[in-house]
Amino acid sequence: MTRTRSLPIRLIRLLALAVACWLAVTVLAVLVLRFVPPWTSAVMMERRIGALLHGETDFHLHQRWVPWTQVSPYVPLAMVAGEDQKFPFHHGFDFDAIQDAMDAADEGRRLRGASTISQQTAKNLFLWNGRSFVRKGLEAYFTVLIETLWPKQRILEVYVNIAELGDGIYGVGAASDAFFQQSPARLNPAQSARLAAVLPNPRRLRADRPSAYVQSRANWIQRQMDQLGGPAYLQSATPARSPRRR
Length: 246
Fold this sequence. Notes:
Strand order of the largest sheet: 1-3-2
Order of helices and strands: HHEHHHHHEEHHHH
Strand content: under 5%
Distance between the termini: 69 Å
Radius of gyration: 20 Å
CATH architecture of the largest domain: Orthogonal Bundle
CATH topology of the largest domain: Penicillin binding protein transpeptidase fold
């Protein structure tokens, strides 16, 4: 009888130990990546595996890490202007955007993205593509971790280095080589805006041969970059300030 009663207790203890170990490992991994450049990402590995499974024998993945100081300040500004203008001020989640997306869904309008750059960084680095509640829950967890353990600059530095900017092209280093044949430090506002403009669908849209849609979106992003005040928007913004209106 005692053994029968003790079995559930042991299972609970083992489960609690497993959860504690998982939490410790994930916290340690995020803490290490604050200082060490990630050598790959979950999304890159998923793309490699997908190419193998689909027999894409000519697929090649391109990515190289570029330190923050060697990236044009217009690149992160363009991504913030196009994807998440409240990035310097929120703590990982844009609740206004989430509410707007929910309202649009309720009214039957086209679904709108509400993910912040912090959420996209968490998803790209640690998780897989998909819309399941499990993945979204893990995304929220890793978003809280990186917002807690990384400064904003580090989140942007990782994001611009692992974001998919073309088919098999990840990060500003590989993208600047493939599309503009120059170093990331020399990218101008227009080129940076075109990189940010392909983010909705980087496997179909191209920054070097922009479609009418890409060029129109790039023009809009560049106007937003100017309205935000240029690179100083990211350099001097603090949580105490209020973001400018679009």
